[in-house]
Amino acid sequence: MADTEVIIVGAGPAGLMLAAELRLAGIRPLVLERHPEHRDTHKANGLGGQILELLRYRGLLERLEAAATGPSHPAPRYPFGDVHLDFSGLAEPPLRGLTLPQPQLERLLAEHAGELGAEVRRGHEVVGVSQDAETVTAQVRGPDGTYPVTAAYLVGCDGGHSRVREMAGIAFPGLTYPEVNRLGQVTLPDSVIRLDNGDLEVPGPGRIGAGFTRTDHGVFGFGPLTDEVLLVLTTETDPTEIDDEPMSLTEFQDSIRRVLGADLPLGEVIRLSRYQFQARQAERYRDGRILLAGDAAHLFPATGVGLNAGMLDTVDLAWKLAADIDGWAPAGLLDTYHEERHYAGARTLLQTQAQVALRRDEDPAARALREVFLELLVDEQPLRRLGSLIAGTDLRYPMPNPNQHPLTGTFAPDLTLRIDQRVTSVAELMPAARPVLLDLADRPELREIADEWAGRVDIRTAETDARPADALLIRPDAHIAWAATVGEPGGIAALALREALSYWFGEPVKTTVPLSDRPT
Known about the structure:
- This protein is an alpha+beta fold.
- The chain contains 12 helices and 29 strands.
- A 6-stranded mixed beta sheet has the order 8-2-1-12-22-21. Strands 17-18-19-13-20-23 form a 6-stranded antiparallel beta sheet, sandwiched between helices. It has a 4-stranded mixed beta sheet with strand order 27-26-28-29, with helices on one face.
- Helix 1 runs parallel beside helix 4.
- It starts with 5 loop residues before the first strand and ends in a 15-residue tail after the last helix.
């Protein structure tokens, strides 16, 4: 007998998002977190990319925005390596962000998961893992001693130094870059003047341009977080790995002095952190009944993308775990988690390692690379394409696609819908994280087929302007599993829909007699 259905190791954003998604699917997760209390360590300043749209589809974004410094917003500029991407001239910038420090994000996600019925045990550390054909067992060290917990599956969401990954014997190849990055969220005293163009006028060194300044000793950079708060960065090369001790203000000021050759007066210091970039990806995201998600599965050598990738991992994984536990998963469904999210992680590694190339060295070749790169981004198309790559909105999962419809594998667009004379949207169909067949052309033969999966797949008939397809089969993670082209012949569309429903959602729940075969 299992003690719970899924053990989640780690109560960071990925683990808590997974717990909430599993509860939406009716699965009982148990979250085990080794730290006894919520941590106030600022690992990330906020969220950006595709995860914001997913959170909006789940009805969570407004809740996060209420706790943030303001609503999610288009990013007019974005640091990419040692250059800044300027989206300010685009009507609809491809990147959006939400300023919400990670401790607040974790508290909100914990509240949400708790409201759905997830259990989180803090101060309980997983010290051993074993599995057989039917279950996985974690040995847990808690306040009252060590005890076992058994479940159908265990998911390691326990960060870049994942003990779960290590105990499962999953390789984590990659490299650690020698640059040490030091960050400070600070205000400035009256002696430092912020100019209208974003530059700083500093006593001593004079004017320092907004963005990145490269010197013989490293890189200094800064940019606004709010009207009062700046994010200040230094990067220096150090061949030794840094320790885990918190960074002191003295260490930060010494680094600024080494890089700039002068002191930068600081006001209130809100947050200090130090890190080295790594580029690593687990060889496999699944080993039997043990799976990985978030930083346990991948580490990227750039900021601003880890939470997006990690939380989206769990949205992909949750409904597939639920299908397997509930007994209706088709063969191989759970393996598609690795196939899809390892591919997504590799895409993120691609663009973040490109950033490494853009920010390293100051020889003529490196300068030429940055200049050519910026010249290419003067045009709108490459600028949008790069912004979409960073956000993860360009992601298209490889999947069965007989008619080659361009929407299959992509995140479902938020179409405005009219259902029974009521105006709604695709987003409003997704808070419950259930599969949806969305009929946009009143195709009864397609609805009849989907009705064989009634109770497992919701069926909605709607109208929309300039429909992109006659029908969409949307998975719980809001990705499109199948789409009927506009005017696609009924026999072809019906066969492809049945294959897609079987591929993703198992055998039919019931069998119906086709309309054409019914007696009159």
